[in-house]
Specification:
Layout lengths: L2 H8 L1 H16 L2 E3 H16 L5 H13 L1 H11 L7 H7 L9 E4 L2 H13 L4 H12 L6 E3 H16 L14 E6 L6 H14 L4 E4 L6 H14 L3 E2 L7 H15 L3 E4 L9 H17 L6 E7 L5 H13 L3 E5 L9 H9 L3 E5 L7 E3 L2 H9 L5
Helix pairs in contact: 1-16, 2-7, 3-6, 4-5, 7-8, 8-9, 9-16, 10-11, 12-13
């Protein structure tokens, strides 16, 4: 299964919410084209119905008495069974739809309904208003179908996402230090394991520093991924200073000529000042070894948090100079629209998205595929 098909199938909660919403919006105030055709036919039939002609009837009666051959000629002249009459020729030009297509006028009421739908899908108020307004531009007063509305929405989503769809940059610097941050349960540890495995498969030498020294399960999980990918995992005793571990890992990577050092950090809530100060300390210590490090700071976001993800970006940006985003758990939420809000508000690169636990469930972000999947549109 291609990642797009997997994305589309796993984004069902987001796409079905938007898809059902669009269906309802178009249905409300829709115009049934089949019913319009029937009304047109009735109107034409009434207008073209021939009036009885007494003189013509009388003439036909006389002709019948005069000649049977003449009767044939007159009868054919009045109405031929082999030649379509004017009414049938007119109605024949009206192409009847094979399927009933529901459409409605794109008016102010529909615009308001679209705004409400996108806000409920966690696009945020500002982004929802902007997207809806762009959809309406040039379309107000037009009859639009569900498919057309989806296409308009997908186009706007892709336009917003296109500038931020960037893979994580790789540099000549050795080691390239990648600091991974995020709140508890966002999927940092799994993301690090998947990225390390993918970089190793691409020919890079990789080391992982298990900087979440407060959670034994995180260290064990990284060690499993390290064994799977053939990537060494540097650990420290439980409760150790994670900044010291990061410094030690950088020294080892320099000595061994490692291309990429990925540093895990403990999950921390953005409103815990003490934990955020600890993250600041890790950054300061890393820069003692290399003032340009960390070269990438990836913020891993859990899509199920919805609009709270915006606050997380704001806080982590201040503390650790976030350079890019990874969005996980898009398969478990109807709040996929928050990714559009993040792109619109911050413009930070989105390096990858995750829709599951398997290694191929973390893929480079493709704006068009995401837009099609989010809106429930058709695409290959």
């Amino acid at each position: 299964m291609s990642f797009f098909k997997k994305l589309k199938s796993k984004l069902f909660k987001s796409s079905s919410k938007i898809e059902e919403g669009i269906d309802s919006i178009v249905e409300d105030g829709s115009i049934d084209e089949a019913e319009i055709i029937i009304e047109v036919e009735k109107s034409i039939t009434l207008k073209l119905q021939p009036e009885p002609d007494a003189n013509k009837t009388k003439k036909l009666h006389v002709e019948k008495e005069y000649s049977s051959s003449k009767l044939d000629l007159v009868g054919e002249d009045v109405k031929s069974p082999n030649k379509p009459n004017f009414l049938s020729r007119v109605l024949g030009r009206i192409e009847k739809p094979k399927k009933t297509t529901k459409k409605r006028i794109f008016d102010d009421s529909m615009l308001e309904s679209l705004e409400e739908l996108l806000i409920s899908a966690d696009m945020g108020v500002d982004t929802a208003l902007r997207v809806s307004a762009n959809m309406a531009e040039g379309n107000l007063g037009r009859k639009v179908s569900v498919a057309e509305v989806k296409a308009l929405l997908a186009t706007e989503v892709a336009r917003i996402m296109e500038p931020v769809a960037k893979p994580m940059p790789l540099y000549q610097q050795k080691p390239q230090v990648v600091l991974v941050v995020g709140v508890n349960g966002s999927g940092k540890t799994t993301t690090i394991g998947k990225l390390a495995s993918q970089f190793k498969a691409a020919g890079k030498t990789v080391m992982i520093a298990a900087g979440d020294t407060f959670r034994a399960a995180a260290v064990e999980q990284l060690q499993v991924w390290g064994d799977r990918a053939g990537v060494p995992v540097l650990t420290a005793p439980e409760g150790s200073d994670p900044a010291s571990l990061a410094f030690e890992a950088m020294a080892k990577c320099k000595k061994d000529g490692v291309d990429l050092l990925m540093i895990d950090t403990a999950g921390r809530l953005q409103n815990r000042k003490d934990l955020m100060e600890e993250l600041e300390k890790i950054v300061r210590v890393i820069r003692k070894s290399d003032e340009t490090a960390p070269h990438n700071t990836l913020l891993v976001l859990d899509a199920t948090t919805g609009q709270n993800a915006i606050k997380q970006v704001e806080v982590f940006q201040d503390v650790s100079d976030v350079s890019g985003l990874v969005m996980t758990k898009l398969d478990g939420t109807a709040k996929g629209g928050v990714l559009v809000a993040l792109a619109d508000k911050f413009g930070l690169p989105i390096h990858a998205i995750g829709v599951g636990e398997q290694i191929d469930d973390l893929q480079a972000f493709d704006p068009e595929e995401f837009a099609l999947a989010l809106t429930g549109s058709h695409g290959e």
